[in-house]
Amino acid sequence: MRLKYADNVIFRNYLKDQAKNMEQIALTIDNKKLTVEKGVTILQAARTIGIEIPTLCYFNLGDLQIENKPGGCRICVVEIEGRKNLAPACVTECATGMVVHTHNIRVLNARRTVLELILSDHPFDCLVCSKSGECELQSLAQKFGIREIHYQGEKSVYRKDTSPAIIRDIDKCIMCRRCEMMCNDFQTCGVLSAINRGFQSVVAPAFEMNLDHSTCTYCGQCVSVCPTGALTEQDHTRSVLNALADPTKTVVVQTAPAVRAALGEAFGLPAGSLVTGKMVAALRQLGFDYVFDTDFAADLTIMEEGSELLDRLTRHLKGDPHVKLPILTSCCPGWVNFFEHHFPEMIDIPSTAKSPQQMFGAVAKTYLADKIGLKRKDLVVVSIMPCLAKKYECTREEFSSDGNPDVDYALSTRELANLIKQANIGFTSLEDENFDDPMGESSGAAVIFGTTGGVIEAAVRTAYELHTGKELPKLDFEELRGLEFVRSATVDFDGLPIRIGIAHGLGNARKLLEEIKAGRSRYHAIEIMACPGGCIGGGGQPYTHGDINILKARQKAIYEEDKRKPLRKSHENPSIQRLYEEFLGTPLGEMSHHLLHTHYFDKTGEVIISE
Amino acid sequence: MIRIGSMAALEDIRKQLLQEQQTKQQENQVVVKVALATCGIASGARDILQFFSAELEKRNIEAAVLQTGCMGYCYAEPTVEVCRRGQEPVIFGYVDEKRADDIIENYIKKGVMVDGLIPKNFSTACHCEHEPQAVPEKSKQIRIALRNCGVIDPASIEDYILHDGYHALADVLNRMTPEEAIEEVIASGLKGRGGGGFLTGQKWKLTRQSQSAQKYVVCNADEGDPGAFMDRSILEGDPHSVIEAMAICAYCIGAGQGLVYIRAEYPLAIDRLLHAIGQAREAGLLGSHILGTDFHFDISLRYGAGAFVCGEETALIHSMEGHRGEPTVKPPFPSEAGYLGKPTNVNNVETFACIPLIFRLGAAWFNTIGTANSKGTKVFALAGKINKVGLVEVPMGTTLRDVIFDIGGGIQHDKQFKAVQTGGPSGGCLTAKHLDTPIDYENLTKAGSMMGSGGMIVMDEDDCMVSVAKYYLDFTVEESCGKCSPCRIGNKRLHEILEKITRGEGSMDDLNKLRNLAHVVKETSLCGLGQSSPNPVLSTMENFWEEYLEHVSDKKCRAGVCKAMMKYFILEEHCVGCMACARNCPVNAISGEKKMPHTIDQSICIKCGVCFEKCKFNAIEIR
């Protein structure tokens, strides 16, 4: 079942076909003559000569080929001489001899009127909207100098929908359909689509049911691409501030690897700035009692998951027919939700290792609590995540003990940035500080969890050495890196070829899962991340507004941090070694099994489509 | 029906059927045909058919009582055609059991004419031996698309074959290459009858040129214009002509699969079409090796849920694919990437219905009918304040005056003609000054309206043109898919402004806004729906500007439609103080002493009109 969003798929194939014949097209835009290749749109052509035609529904993540251009908002309309109507620049292809005007009075009037119409059906609550300052509709209104809305009337009103991770305030939906494209075309979750018609049409789950009754994975990609405040995250900053202010609580924070490569953007630093030290300093200033690193837990994950991979491999090589291969990674909660909803028959294939966030929580509320002499209930664990699905993950019942969750609150990178700003912390001028012990030390292998391909590379570094007993000749597995949606590589484990598959984006994961289901999979291990680029492109990261270069810069920063680390293999992390010695015993041992492993559920019965 | 294996076999069968028919005609004293289309059935035609069957048998009259499709006289349903042996058939309208009895006793038995006769006002183009009328005589109406409606039994493939059916398909398969056949359609000058007016042959050619192993022929039977019902009538009265044309089209473009997208609200059309498809399959006219050739083609149905926008071809295709019925930007055109991404040719029912005759009588013949740029005929569904509501088919170039006053019988109750809306909600209002304009694609567009699918709604002096524009906007607001902002929000705002004006709260500024917004919606919307939805507003503003002005400056609605602007007054000189009005007023707005003139408190009056009805002295005046 590949749900397709007809517009984009058909259009893309069409463009591909068109691109085959690289004919040159000469045209005129705003009195400037230019030549472009056949198939190029007016919007793209205009950009090549420095003309930025405003857009709203249009969204394009460049080389990733994630593209939304339903031609629906009509903000990008231009005049083409000889045509009766104005044409949308984002979908109109250049043709020979075309004479285009992007800013004559007719175009400006039409564009302005269309924008006023959109605004006339939008709540005027910019002052209290969580998207304020990041809202693309707001920016357009500013750019167009809208000071009055001439066409006023009834506004469409819908029910607000609150889920553990995502809030839908669809009064603010402008029907750009970006979320729909992400949810259907890219993630193949099929949760969001347009419903109703005419003035009442809006993007929602089927029958306008709540997200938490749908097959939503909470990957948050809809939030990432939403131009307005219609889709935002569930905000926990106030709860965290309250916990910090509570003298009876000791508040521990953990930060995911992808956060340090993106947080700086919220403070005006260029994309790809690594702000690990400043982030630690800021968290300390905010009043967290212990500033730890999820990277520590990522190393722990590798110990467990890598051992599990080796265990399954060994049993497989010995001829055990019951071994499930390939093994699938399980650290991405969006991905876990996805297979629980869409592939319930395969829930015994993924690794049982908990995600780093939850391993951290489980260890913090046992090992750490003991070590610092606190009761579980007096310890509050906050995690800073690039992810919205983590907000849901920490509420899962199996990740709590007597009603006390292992992780109390998961904040997104964006929420942390807001917290820092609220606390008047001059982020960019902070001196770097280091994480606390004993859960702050980590290896480079843990850092690369933040990008697609990183988890499996980290696992290979450890599994190779544990399996062969030899030191790896080269740590950088270039063949596992990049941004291609589905990648594969064979790693030589000293004569044993291990075939590895990688996918990011749930639609791409679906392809690999279908292969497994059909018995055609040739992999031993597969890494899957729900978001484009992995956690660096997570639903909780600072908004990229469709700039693919931001994702690339974050990925580069992640690999740089790995290179800089003195330790680059999880099993060499002394804090991890100590944890096993003092507390856990051995990987896959009884204590580990109890604290660090989980099981999955068939969630097909949880979908409700009518009340 | 036996399987027809070749062109020769088809001809044999027709000759055989002709012979059988002639024998029957000798046997029967009379042939009675009852129009059993939706319009007839709704008026009780089924009972009339029963009545004729039973009574003729009871009264020992050798007769054949048959069903047929709509004869076009919808205003006079049930309609019945009676053909006495050796005589010209005559048509009776408003046939109830009493009149049916009269027809049997007087006309059938004695040949004495009875009331209800409808003079036949059209000629039919056809290629039949028993009606050798290739080029019809000079007549205001020429039936090409409707040629078999009201003539044949829609449930009988034999009847269709007898009337030259499937001979065009046989001709094309045996004698023409697809390219030649396409050239013939191009040469005929036939343009799409669904609204767009694109050259049909050209569309076929483009689809043929697209390279793909799989292509589709789609028949658009999603007739969504309020007041248009010609496609329904064709499918109910002559389903095989559409099947035959789709097969010809499939052969031309290289398709193996045909789909009819039909609205689920047309159950009778669906039934008859399915029945006809079954018959055609049985006869080997659909399926594999059609007429013994290597041509394979079959048709299935897809049901629409009644969304107006699904008449737009890209929206229709998405709906057929199971997606939301929303238009997409063209290009790619369906001829390149249509149903399931494959090249697809979409034509509407009426367009297809013209095809077989074009092949039988030739493109040159078709070309002689119509104007320089619009060839052939067009079916119009006459509705509104017109005497003869029904279907008419006239050559392109016929004037509105001929259609409305001659064929349509003029305005009801001898009222003054005010306007006619052509092209449904996407069209515009034309006025008395356009009455002598020849109707074709170009002229209608020039006059600010459009051909559309051929709805023609006539309005008289009692219609308020602002309310008419509001009515159509109401429809488009409801039917917009919501994909593009100008159509989704712009039409809503247009409607709100019109609402405000009809409430008597409009200002000159509102009129300016209305005009500006209408233009923006028209030129920025994604598909034909939004690009034409402001037409009723713009054309009424153009042609009835003074009415808009009256509404906003004088707060007056001359047609008396906008209640909010009406005021009821009591004329002192007429009022006798009987108190009937005061007693009946539901809100106690009327006061006055007995036998003294009364007055209405305007601040309380709800304009229900009860006082007006109750006053026996004409003392209540509406201003």
CATH superfamily of the largest domain in chain B, called what?
Answer: NADH-ubiquinone oxidoreductase 51kDa subunit
Sheet with the most strands, sense and barrel status of chain B: 5 strands, mixed
Count of domain modules of chain A: 2
Please tell me the total number of domains of chain B: 5
Strand order of the largest sheet of chain B: 2-1-3-4-5
Helicity level of chain A, as a percent range?
A: 25-40%
CATH-defined fold name of the largest domain in chain B? Rossmann fold
What quaternary form is this? heterodimer
Mean pLDDT of chain A: 93
How many separate helices of chain B? 24
What is the CA-based Rg of chain B, rounded?
Answer: 27 Å
Any idea what the shape of chain A is? globular
Number of helices of chain A: 19
Contiguous low-pLDDT stretches of chain A (5 residues minimum) are: 1-7
Question: What CATH architecture of the largest domain in chain A do you see?
Answer: 3-Layer(aba) Sandwich
* Average pLDDT rating of chain B: 92
Distance between the termini of chain A: 26 Å
Beta strand % of chain A: 5-15%
Please explain how this structure is put together.
- The complex is a heterodimer of chains A (611) and B (623).
- By secondary structure, chain A is of the alpha/beta class.
- Chain A folds into two domains: 6-118, Ubiquitin-like (UB roll) (Roll); 238-596, Rossmann fold (3-Layer(aba) Sandwich), CATH 3.40.50.1780.
- Chain A has 19 helices and 22 strands.
- In chain A, the strands form seven sheets. In chain A, strands 2-1-7-5-6 form a five-stranded mixed β-sheet, with helices on both faces. In chain A, strands 14-13-16-19 form a four-stranded parallel β-sheet, with helices on both faces. In chain A, strands 15-22-21-20 form a four-stranded mixed β-sheet.
- The longest helix of chain A is centred in the middle third of the chain and has 24 residues, at 294-317.
- Mean pLDDT of chain A is 93; it is low at 1-7.
- In chain B, 41% of the residues lie in helices and 15% in strands.
- In chain B, strand 18 and strand 19 (599-600) form a beta hairpin.
- Chain B folds into five domains: 24-120, Glutaredoxin (3-Layer(aba) Sandwich), CATH 3.40.30.10; 143-366, Rossmann fold; 377-460, Ubiquitin-like (UB roll) (Roll), CATH 3.10.20.600; 465-554, de novo design (two linked rop proteins); 567-622, Alpha-Beta Plaits (2-Layer Sandwich).
- The longest helix of chain B has 21 residues, at 7-27.
- Chain B is built from 24 helices and 20 strands.
- Chain B is globular, with a radius of gyration of 27 Å.
- With 623 residues, chain B is of the alpha/beta class.
- Classes of the chains: A alpha/beta (611), B alpha/beta (623).
- The interface between A and B is large, with 45 and 41 residues.
